[in-house]
Amino acid sequence: MGIDATARIHPTAIVSDGAVIGRECIVGPYSTVGPNVVLGEGCELISHVVLDGHTTFGKANKVWSFACLGIAPQDLKYAGEPTRLEVGNGNQIREYVTISRGTNGGGGVTRIGSGCLIMAYVHIGHDSSIGDGCILPNGATLAGHVTVEDYATLSANAPVHQFCTIGRYAYIGGGTTITQDVLPYSLTSVERNNHAYGINKVGLARKGFTPEQLRELATAMRLLTSGKLNTTQALEEINDMIESGSGHEHVRYLAEFVKRSERGVVK
Question: Which residue from 18, 69, 137, 212 has the least number of CB within 10 angstroms?
Answer without folding.
Answer: 212
